[in-house]
Write a structure and sequence with these properties.
- One of its GO terms (biological process) is mitochondrial translation.
- This is GATC amidotransferase.
- Keywords: Transferase.
- GO terms for molecular function: transferase activity.
- The chain has 106 residues and is mainly alpha-helical.
- Helix content is 29%, strand content 4%.
- β1 (81-82) and β2 (85-86) form a beta hairpin.
């Protein structure tokens, strides 16, 4: 299944990821092919589950802190950090409209 320009534009807006090169589009197509395997699973007569543990009574546990003061160790895992915070990709940045952008698929 090929990725259309409209789908690509929609995914870019949802994920705030730029798929304007062949490598990005190729990775997206591979992910879609992988997920499409779910369509081959026969689910006829299978009722939707509310929980994977629906046959068990699940109780909430107390949230007891057993360890702490490990900020320096945790920040060693950060690819990028500012002061004592992980730096994440910026969110909610409006992308230009499809007509205003160059797309690899056009």
């Amino acid at each position: 299944q090929k990725v259309t320009v409209a789908v690509l534009d929609h995914l870019e807006h949802l994920a705030l990821v730029d798929f304007r090169d062949s490598e990005g589009v190729e990775q997206l197509q591979k992910a879609i092919q992988f997920a499409d395997q779910l369509h081959e699973v026969n689910t006829d007569g299978v009722e939707p589950m509310d929980s994977v543990l629906e046959d068990r009574c699940v109780y909430l546990r107390e949230d007891d802190v057993t360890e702490g003061n490990c900020t320096k160790e945790l920040l060693k895992n950060a690819k990028e950090k500012v002061e004592e915070y992980f730096v994440a990709p910026p969110g909610n940045i409006p992308l230009p409209k499809l007509e205003e952008r160059d797309s690899f698929l056009q």
